[in-house]
Amino acid sequence: MRFSFGKGVAAGLGVAALIASASLGSRLVAEPGHPVQAAPALINGAWVADPVIAADPLLLLDDNVTYSEGQGPKAAAKIASSELDCMAKVVRHEAANQSRQGQRAVAEILVNRAKSGRFPSTICGVANQPGQFFDTTSYNPSRDTAEWKTAMEISREVLSGQGQNVARGAYFYHAAYQAPTRFFRGRQQVLAMGDHIFYR
Fold it and tell me: How far apart, in whole angstroms, are the C-alpha atoms of residue 171 and residue 176?
């Protein structure tokens, strides 16, 4: 996966078509009135009202991230261990109960935000931004579990630009069993996968 960017975030190119989750072999597993065990939703009331994020119209227009499939140029050896650790913690905490592709989609949100110019420019900065994911320094999952191994593998792949893009430019998501709030109703839904729905 390789990323390329336009000249400015404000130069929105329009609304892309909704990605059919079936084309990725995914499906929603929650139905109204029947909540499922799900990873915590990314959006919460404490920061939806944050004028820097929720009310930023440029995020609605940000179609400047484009994707090409294939191997990225960054070698795995050049990935900072701190960035890898932060991403793996987010993947483990937020999506360990999801499919491998569902976990990858969450990891890609971190990259999309870091490259957008609208959020912190590092993975750890995005993960630890107040009111959004969580404080990764206070979260220390066991490192000898299958869940941690998978989170590390997925994070290494995403950070090194390997594999097929899943999230398609998503910046946000919420649990599938939750009704979308006004914050989401003004955004483009790009993917429904497992217990999560993803938006730009």
Answer: 16
